Amino acid sequence: MIPRRRFGLIPGLAALLCAGLLLGHLRSSSPPTALHRQHAAATIAAPAAAPFAAEPATAAVHVRDPERALREGSLRGTVADGGVSTGFGGRLKPDRALRRLFDYYLTLLGETDLRGIRQLLHEDLLHRHLDALLVGEVMQTFDRYARYQQAAAELADQPGLPLAGQFARVDALRRQMLGETLAEAFYGDEQASRQQLLQRLAIESERNLPDAEKARQLQALDAALPAAEREARARTRIGDLVQQQTALLDDTHADPATRYAERAQTWGGAAAGRLAQLDQQRALWQARLDAYAQQSQRISANDALDAQQRQAALLQLLRDSFHGPERIQVQAMMEYNSLPGTSTQ
C-alpha cells in the first residue's frame, strides 16, 4: 500500500493549489489533447554544437524516432507549453513563455536525442504558421539555450561553492552564453528572487541581530518585492495553512460535513466547497496509486517472469496506468519510496 501522506500531491504543489483555489486564481482547463503538428517540409539543419551529446560534432549521430518519443514517451497526451512572442517589426521577443516551450521539448532528452528534439520544435513552429524569418530566430535561440544548458550541467559537476558563489557563477555563465537580453528575459525574475533569498538568509543567520530588528529588515525586503512576487508569497502562506488544517482533518478522520464546516468557518463557504472537490480528486488519485502499487508488487513477486520480462511488464503497467506528467510524478514517487516500478528513460 502506498503511504497516503507521502503520495499526496508533490510537496509545495498542494499548498499552491489550495491557495489558488481560495484566492480564485485557479483556472479551469480542458482535458489535454494530443499535440497536433505537421511534418517539416524542409530538412532541418543540425545545431552548430552538439549539447548533451557525448559524440564529437563531426561524428554521425543516431536519432531515435522523435515522433515516437512524443507519441509514446513521457509527454504523451500533453500539449506543448509556452509560446512565441513578437515585438517591433515581427521580430522575436524572448520571454519566459519561449523558455517554457524549449523546456517542454527538452524534457524528451533521453527518449530521443537533441537533433530529434530540434525537429519536433521546428515542426511545432511550422504548425503555428510563423514567418520563416521568425522560425529561424526561434531555432537559433533554441540552439543557444541548449548549449547553455549543456554548459550549466557541466558546471554543476564542478566542486561546490558557497550558495552566493554558486548563484554568481551560474548568472555569469548565463550572461556570457545567452547575452544580457536573453538572460534577462529567461531568468531575470529568478535572479531577483535568488538575490532576495540570499539577503533573507544573511539576515536570518546574523546571530547578533535582535529578533525585532530581523523582523523589521525582513519586512522591508518583502515590501521591496514586485507585486506579483508578494501575491505569490501570500498564496504560499495561505496554502501552508490550508495544508496544516487538512492534515488535522485527516488525522481525526473528519467526515465531509465536519471538513466543510471547519473550512467554511476559516475560509468561507465557496472556498470550502472547492476544497471539498480537491478532497475528492485526492481520493481518486490515491485509489489509482494504490491499485498501481498492488499490481506492481504482484508483477515483482511473479517468479514465472525473468528479470527482463518483469521489467517490461512493469513498464507497460506504468504506461497503461498513467499519462504524461502523471507518469513523471509517479516515477519520482517510486524513486523516493523505493517501490516496485521502472523508469521509462
Description of the molecule:
With 345 residues, the protein is mostly helical. The chain has a domain at 270-345. Helix content is 63%, strand content 0%. The protein has helices at 13-23, 66-72, 96-106, 114-127, 132-156, 163-178, 180-204, 211-223, 227-251, 256-267, 269-300, 307-321, 325-337. Residues 1-19, 23-63 and 338-345 have low confidence and may be disordered.
List the helices and strands and how they pair.
Elements: H1 13-23, H2 66-72, H3 96-106, H4 114-127, H5 132-156, H6 163-178, H7 180-204, H8 211-223, H9 227-251, H10 256-267, H11 269-300, H12 307-321, H13 325-337
Q: Helicity, in percent?
A: 55-70%
**Residue ranges: pLDDT <50 for 5 or more in a row?**
1-19, 23-63, 338-345
Q: What is the overall silhouette?
A: globular
The radius of gyration is: 24 Å
Mean pLDDT: 76
Summing up helix and strand content along with how strands pair, one would put the structural category as mainly alpha
Order of helices and strands: HHHHHHHHHHHHH
SS summary, helix count: 13
End-to-end CA span: 25 Å
How many strands? 0
Main pleated-sheet profile: none
How much of the sequence is in beta strands? under 5%
